[in-house]
Amino acid sequence: MGQGTHSSVHKTWRDNRWLIGLSVVIAGIAVATAQNKVSPVMNMIITQFHTNTSVAGWISSSFSLIAVLLSMTAANLADSIGIRKVGIFALIITIVGGVLGMFSTNIWFMLLTRVIEGTGVGIVAVIGPVLITQWFNSKNGLSIIMAIWTSWMTISQVIIFFTASPITSNFSWQGMWGLAIAFLIVGFIAFLLFVHQPQEIVEEHDSRKDNRSTARKVLDSINIKTQFKAIKAAGKSSAFIGIAAFFFALCSFTFVSWIQSVWVQNVPGLSRGQINTMLSSMYFLEIFFTILAGVVLDKIKSENGKKIFGMTCAVLYGIIGLVAFNFIHTTALAWAIIIIFPIFDGSIPTTIYSLAPMSVKKAPLSANAIGIMNIGLNAGTFFAAPLAGSIMSMGSSMVGIMFIISAILVALAFGFVTLYESK
After folding, report:
1. Does 100 reside within a domain?
2. If you average pLDDT over each of 128-142, 165-179, 286-300, which comes out highest?
3. Which of 55, 57, 94, 365 has a CB 3.0–4.6 Å from the CB of 385, allowing a cystine?
4. Number of CB atoms found within 10 A of residue 150's CB
5. Separation in Å, CA 375 to CA 84, 153, 154, 243
6. How far apart are CA 16 and CA 9, in angstroms?
7. Would you state the pLDDT for residue 370?
8. Is it the case that residue 161 has pLDDT exceeding 70?
9. What is the pTM of this model?
C-alpha cells in the first residue's frame, strides 16, 4: 500500500534503517516486559495482598485500559508534537509507573501504577509499526522487520518466564518489577540515541503551519469526535481486524495468565518453577514461528490465501487451547502443548499485523487501521485475565471452552476482511 516509501539516502550511520528498526523493537520489548511481568508472580500477589483470582487478574491486565484509550490518539499525538518526543515520553512514564509499582503496599495503588505503565505500552504499540513503515518497504526488508516487531511480546515472555524463578526466590515479586525497569532503561537509551524519522518526513512536518500550543495539540488529538472520525475513515474491514485482534488477545493472555495455575493442579509432579521454564521454552520457540509465519505470508500472494491462512491457524489454535485447559494430565502431554501452541500463538498476530495496513483503501489510513488493531489487542488483553479468573471458579474446563469459542470468532472476523493491497 505504498508504505515505507519515505526511504532516504543513508548519509550517516544514524540513518541505518536496521539500527533504527531494531532500536524500536528493543523499546517495544522493554515496555512489553513491563506489561507481562505479572504473569509468573500472580499467586505471590494473591497471597501478599490477600486478594482473589478475579482481582489479581486486573493487576495483570489493568495496564491495557489506558492503552485502549490511547490506541487512536497515539498516532495523532506523534504527528502533532513529533514521534520521537512521544516515544521518549512513553518510555519515561512506563519507568515511573514501574518504580511506583515496586513500592506498592496495597492492591489499589498497584492497580493505579499498572494504568500508568499502560500509557507507555499504548503509545509504543502504535508508534512502533508507524516508525518501521517509514524506514522500510516491501523491497528493503519490511516483512522481516515487521515479523521481528510482532515478536516483541513473545520475547518479553521468554525473558520473564526464564528469569522468574531465580529472581523471585531472592527478591519476591518486586524482583520482576526491577527486571522490567532495567529493560526499560536499556530501551530508553536505545530509543534516545538511535530512533528518529526520515528527514523528508521531518521536513514535511515542519512545513505545516500549526500555531497551536502543545497542550492544545494534545487536547485536539484525544478529542472523542476525532477518534470516531478516524475509525469511520478506516472502514469496516479494519473494524473486523480489530475484532480478530480482540479475541486473539483474549485467548493468548488467558493462556499466559492462568495455564500455570491449571497445570499445577492438573499435572502431578509439575511445580510452578518447572512450568515457568516450560513456558519460557515455549515463547522462545514462538519467536521463530512468528518470523516463519511472516515469511509464509510474504510468499502467499493471494489476498484470500492470506485470510485462509489466518482462519486455519485460528481454528487450530482454539482446539489446542481447549486441550491445554481440559485434557492435560501428564508432563509428556504438557510438553506437547509447549511445542505445538507457539506455532499458532505466533502465526495469528503476525497475520493480524500484516493484514491491518491492507484493510484500508488508502495508505495514509494505515495508521488508523493500526490504531483500531491496537484497540482490539489491548481490550482483549484487558479483559482476558480477570474474565478467565472469574470463570476459573467454575472450573478450568470452562476456561478451555471460552478459549475455543474466542478462537473461532477470530477465524470468522478474518473471513469478513476485505484486503486492498493489490487494488
Report:
1. yes
2. 165-179
3. 57
4. 25
5. 22, 16, 19, 9
6. 9
7. 82
8. yes
9. 0.76
